């Protein structure tokens, strides 16, 4: 009996050693180490002027800056950079003032995702004002649910699979109350049932049948984050994991030789776009590290994508080749001709998520 136990322990240790020897996420070429890259992008965020989304309130903070700020905090946490956390928190102080103009006011997923930012601050600094502010957004999103239990903000845009998930999971992590996690999971399954196509990808919207890179990126990140929080026996986990794996398999077939993905995923004539590539990189890396994806298949693809992305960074830490904010439009040329930006939060945020996933 003892011999069998010892053999079993040796087998486990051998498996661990084999995993440790994998170099997909180690031995980085100069300039591509995720600790260095993530630090550069997080530091870049602190002096960057806030991007606004005026239709959600006077000077309301844009959701892409919320995502970047949250991403910088998460990166600071995994790298144990207390000074960076404190400086990111100091920048938030004006948002705690009564009627702070930059706090979004609209009843919309793009406004409410703001709540994920104070909740992340609460997780790290345990200041009750952050918790109160964040939960007001999370609870408000479900204060008038539809008869089927979905938020009244449901609109069937694929972006929502990140926006809703990010807020509700932040509330779950801050409180431990499973109602936040479970409502997000039910919402995601409803979106999957309605929007995922047979090949695994997602049209930008039911009436706009194009596989827009960043739109699908929001989905990939949302499913990845959902899977990180769902326990093995959760009622929705099997459905979400199957949808995630189906999407990842199709994405793998569309990765360009450079390691990037394109503005329109399945159009080879389309330009290589950075924000979607960073989002898919995050999904691949997290999937490999958690055992949801085959390491031998997806590890090299994730590594190639990350190295390609670092080649699109300026010395200051701004990501190039990022599609600007894009509403839905049933017109192929509209997507192909979208302008490209540098340093846009839509790209900065997923670079931080990917760096964090690689370090985590």
Describe this protein's structure.
The protein is mainly alpha-helical. The chain has one domain (30-359): Glycosyltransferase (Alpha/alpha barrel). Helices cover 58% and strands 2% of the residues. The protein is built from 15 helices and four strands. α3 runs parallel beside α15 (345-359), α8 (160-175) packs parallel to α10 (213-229) and α12 packs parallel to α15. The longest helix has 20 residues, at 2-21. The protein is globular.
Strand order in space, largest sheet: 1-2
**Overall form:** globular
Gyration radius, in Å: 20 Å
Q: Tell me roughly what share of residues is in helical segments.
A: 55-70%
CATH architecture: Alpha/alpha barrel
Which topology does CATH recognise? Glycosyltransferase
Would you list the SSEs in sequence order as H and E?
HHHHHHHHHHHEEHHEHEH
Treating each run of at least 4 consecutive H or I residues as one helix, how many helices?
Answer: 15
What number of structural domains do the residues give?
A: 1
Largest sheet: 2 strands, antiparallel
Specify the structural class.
mainly alpha
The CATH first-level class comes to Mainly Alpha
What's the mean pLDDT score? 93
DSSP strand content: under 5%
Which parts are unreliable, with pLDDT below 50 for 5 consecutive residues or more? 1-21
In total, the number of strands is 4
Distance between the termini: 37 Å
């Amino acid at each position: 009996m003892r011999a069998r136990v010892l053999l079993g322990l040796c087998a486990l240790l051998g498996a661990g050693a084999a995993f440790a020897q994998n170099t997909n996420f180690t031995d980085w070429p100069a300039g591509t180490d995720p600790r260095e890259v993530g630090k550069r992008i997080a530091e870049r965020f602190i002096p960057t002027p806030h991007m606004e989304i005026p239709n959600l309130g006077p000077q309301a903070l844009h959701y892409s800056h919320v995502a970047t700020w949250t991403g910088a905090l998460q990166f600071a946490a995994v790298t144990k950079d207390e000074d960076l956390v404190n400086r990111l928190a100091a920048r938030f102080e004006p948002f705690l003032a009564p009627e702070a103009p930059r706090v979004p006011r609209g009843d919309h997923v793009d406004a409410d995702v703001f709540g994920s930012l104070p909740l992340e601050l609460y997780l790290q600094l345990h200041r009750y004002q952050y918790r109160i502010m964040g939960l007001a957004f999370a609870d408000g999103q479900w204060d008038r649910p539809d008869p089927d239990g979905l938020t009244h903000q449901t609109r069937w845009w694929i972006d929502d699979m990140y926006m809703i998930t990010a807020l509700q999971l932040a509330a779950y992590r801050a409180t431990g109350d499973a109602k936040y996690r479970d409502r997000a999971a039910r919402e995601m399954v409803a979106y999957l049932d309605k929007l995922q196509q047979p090949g695994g990808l997602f049209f930008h919207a039911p009436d706009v049948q194009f596989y827009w890179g960043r739109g699908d990126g929001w989905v990939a990140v949302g499913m990845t984050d959902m899977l990180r929080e769902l326990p093995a026996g959760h009622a929705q986990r099997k459905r979400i994991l199957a949808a995630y794996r189906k999407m990842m398999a199709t994405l793998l077939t569309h990765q360009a030789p450079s390691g990037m993905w394109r503005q329109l995923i399945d159009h080879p004539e389309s330009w290589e776009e950075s924000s979607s590539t960073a989002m898919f990189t995050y999904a691949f890396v997290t999937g490999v590290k958690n055992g949801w994806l085959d390491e031998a298949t997806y590890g090299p693809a994730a590594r190639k994508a990350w190295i390609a992305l670092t080649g699109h960074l300026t010395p200051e830490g701004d990501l190039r080749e990022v599609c600007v904010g894009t509403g839905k439009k049933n017109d192929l040329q509209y997507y192909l001709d979208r302008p490209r930006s540098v340093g846009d939060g839509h790209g900065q945020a997923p670079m931080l998520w990917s760096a964090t996933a690689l370090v985590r």
